[in-house]
Amino acid sequence: MSGDLYVHGYHPRENDRLQDQAGTLVELLHSDTIYPDGSSVLEAGCGVGAQTVVLAQRSPGARFTSVDISADSIAEARRRVEGAGLTNVEFLQADVFALPFTTESFDHAFVCFFLEHLSQPARALAILNSMLRPGGSITAIEGDHGSTYFHPDSPAAHAAIECLVELQRRAGGNALIGRQLYPLMLGAGFDAVRVSPRMVYVDSSRPDLVDGFTRRTFTAMIEGVREPAIAAGLIEPDIFDAGVRDLHRTTETDGVFCYTFFKGVGGKGDVALSLQRPEPPTIQAALAPHRHLHR
Ligand SMILES: C[S@@+](CC[C@H](N)C(=O)[O-])C[C@H]1O[C@@H](n2cnc3c(N)ncnc32)[C@H](O)[C@@H]1O
Asked: Structural domain of residue 107, as residue ranges?
């Protein structure tokens, strides 16, 4: 067993939050991930299957093996995948640090919101590398809570977010891991590593994102650590509650909320990663006016 604590816990409300998160972010995070027919994909830390359903739907000819350390999460993931009518996923309860597979037995590996919860993310990536056949690839998607900013700004909201960062650190994880994906993947021996930032920008012209991301994904995640943060003496209850109120305040008509995910893709050996090369829309959007300025 890895011995790491999982900061978000396994409550039904948290399962719904992971589901809301996955549904809201499908295009942003998954639009450039398609696995070839006949290929085998190892998904580590699949949780309740929120990403698994999306992956398996988008690559119906690929075979997925999805593992998680939690038997309850695996049972829920299996229910969701069966409920979606998918037959290309096998589930297994397993610790990423003690995988019951022989080396070089998968074509691809996938992790999402997983490395951030491990005290040894570099070791986990190296193990996943060893599971890949030469020519294989890994895709890793992680958040970075330090990338959060919003309007109206609020010191109390930042303090509440910082509670989650600190609790996750104390549990052995790293809520700021997105910015470290590149060095971590290189260090684990992956080749041709490319990391692309995926920014979620939310204002009231996008009510789907206001509800699905700002309210039900991010703010719900912060609300979920109220009791442990107060019990650990990290914050006074009234400051925490004011912070959550201020996060909700960003969902009003004049409010704005920004967060950046990081998606890394790497290969094992000499690989053309054309199928998985991230082409982030945010970067293109940022470059367009820049080119214009210099014309
Ligand atoms: C935030 S959830 C992410 C779940 C899913 N990937 C998603 O994006 O919805 C992290 C998952 O990692 C699992 N996990 C933590 N440590 C693990 C380990 N050592 N081996 C396998 N799974 C682990 C937890 O049980 C939890 O389900």
From this structure: 12-145+173-200+260-286
CA of 249 relative to ligand 1 center, distance in Å: 31
Cα 75 from Cα 118, distance rounded (Å): 22
Per run of 10 residues, the mean pLDDT along the chain (length 295 residues) is 61 67 83 97 97 97 98 98 98 98 98 98 98 98 98 98 98 98 98 97 95 95 98 98 98 98 94 49 34 30
The pTM of the whole model exceeds 0.90:
no
Q: Cβ < 6 Å from ligand 1: which residues?
A: 2, 4, 6, 8, 18, 22, 44-47, 50-51, 68-70, 73, 95-97, 112-114, 117-118
Q: Which of 1, 2, 6 to probe ligand 1 with, by most ligand atoms within 8 A of CB? A: 6
Q: Rounded to 5 degrees, what angle do the CA atoms 109, 16, 12 make?
A: 105
- Residue 286 sits at φ, ψ, to 5 deg, of -70, -30
Beta bridge partner(s), residue 92: 67
* CATH number of the structural domain spanning residue 102: 3.40.50.150
Q: Cα of 293 to ligand 1 centre, how many Å?
A: 44
> What is the domain count for the chain?
1
What is the dihedral angle through the alpha carbons of 71, 226, 121, 194, rounded to the nearest 10 degrees? Answer: 110
